[in-house]
Amino acid sequence: MRKLYKSEEISQEAAEVTSEVEAVFILDREGVIRYRWVSGNPGVEPDYAEVETELGKLN
User: Fold this and answer.
1) Is residue 22 exposed (0-12), middle (13-18) or buried (19+ Cβ within 10 Å)?
2) Full-model pTM
3) Stretch 20-46: mean pLDDT, rounded?
4) Could you give the C-alpha distances from 38 to 6, 13, 23, 46, 54, in angstroms and in order?
């Protein structure tokens, strides 16, 4: 279980985070997530053709 911190401690902890995440989310008009793609590696990009296909499904 994670310890709760005071706000200034959270700021310090956030400053120490060095990882990045690449992500794509597609939401419909009601705000429902219809597609998500997440990579823990910032050098990896999504399959853009797949993203376009998923966007096309919303019409």
Assistant:
1) middle
2) 0.61
3) 89
4) 30, 23, 4, 8, 15
